[in-house]
Amino acid sequence: MNTIALTVQRRGTLALALMGATLACGQNAISAHSGMIHYVEGRALLDGEAVEPKATEFPEVRAGQSLATEQGRAEVLLTPGAFLRLSANSSCRMISNRLSDTSVEIVSGDALIEVVELLKDNAITAQFKGATARVSKRGLFRFESEKSTVRVFEGQISLTSGEQNIVAGKGKEVVIGRRLQVTSFDPKDTDPFFRWAERRSAYIATANVSAARQAGSMGLLANSPASWAYSPYYGMFTYLPGTGYSYSPFGWAFYSPLTVGDYFNSSNEGFFNTVGASTRLASTPTRSAAAPRGADTASSSSQLSGVGRSSFSGSSRMSSVAAHGSSGGGGHK
User: Is the dihedral of CA 96, 102, 105, 110 positive or negative?
Assistant: First the structure.
């Protein structure tokens, strides 16, 4: 295994910093832009050209470009800790890919925006059916073009249309027309696209454990900014909090290098709910902990061994984790 010094490489349009580690253990992704196409299932087109991501080579949706799916799905990394996922026969256009002003238009079909954490000085807005949706913190939001609706599964979102502005919270659905109309819906009412997004979130949370451990072994325990981190072990990027830990809106835990040790101390603390009968807390992550790239048919219970899901109850959090955490927005503790 070859040790490499701090090096910056360009893979397509993505800048990767390989920080004093072996390629087998992890990389930190340092990009000045949102828009990396992280995962494609089936067929997707970037400005009409087929998207074919390769290992460590991920295309980027630049400002002004459009990404469309056919009989497939796609996942795009926005600001660190935020994801855009497209269902089949859906499309979006990148208006601005700056981290401080990420703006995307949902053009057709269905899309989900998942925000594990929105870092200070980062911003995300979505243009949809003539309205502007602003995300200010952790949450899970679905845009459905056929119904002209925005659903809030977790968190809250601000929508502006003309002179009308409303803030919708969990369980609220906003119908966009001449006026914004707010109704209620059942957040437990899901479909295959939603459940696919949940599995994607779980796989990425699984990769977080190995990435956080590697960063910790390199001495990145304090004063490290939150970032995307690449894990060759799982063949995907994951979110790495700078300090403390974060929860996805689906309930999966994301650890920083400082707190990842608490994952391995949690089996006797009742910190995690089980994910099906096969869930186990291993001393080290195993390859069965996350499905391989392209897998979509496996159930969560059979594929997500080693993934921690929070119950969000006060009794479920260990004092040792809280002691390491720092105050922060959204799901970051």
Answer: positive
Q: What distance in Å separates the CA atoms of residue 28 and residue 60, rounded to the nearest whole number?
A: 17
The sheet carrying 14-18 orders its strands as: 7-11, 14-18, 27-29, 227-231, 236-240
Task: For residue 64, give the nearest of 97, 87, 33 by alpha carbon.
Answer: 97
Compute the distance between CA of residue 198 and CA of residue 205 in angstroms, rounded to an integer. Answer: 11
Q: Is the pTM of this model over 0.85?
A: no
Is residue 305 within 8 Å of residue 284, measured between CB atoms?
no
- Per residue, what are the HEC states of 162-227? CCEEEEEECCEEEEECCCEEEEECCCCCCCHHHHHHHHHHHHHHHHHHHHHHHHHHCCCCCCCCCE
Better-scored residue on pLDDT, 170 or 316: 170
pLDDT tens-digit profile of 144-168? 999 999 999 999 999 999 999 999 9
Q: What is the mean pLDDT of the chain?
A: 76
Average pLDDT over residues 297-318: 36
DSSP SS3 for 133: strand
Q: Which helix (H) or strand (E) holds 18?
A: strand 14-18
- C-alpha 61/C-alpha 45 separation (Å) is 11
As a whole number of angstroms, the distance between CA 299 and CA 301 comes to 5
> Where residue 255 falls among pLDDT bands split at 50, 70, 90?
very high
d(CA 124, CA 269): 36
Pick from 56, 100, 107, 110: nearest CA to 79: 100
Which domains does the chain possess? Answer: 31-184 (2.60.120.1440), 192-324 (no CATH)
Mean pLDDT of 248-270: 79
Provide the terminal-to-terminal Cα distance of the chain, rounded to the nearest Å. 35
* pLDDT (mean) for 245-270: 81
- List, in sequence order, the alpha helices (H) in the chain: 192-217, 261-264, 300-303, 319-324
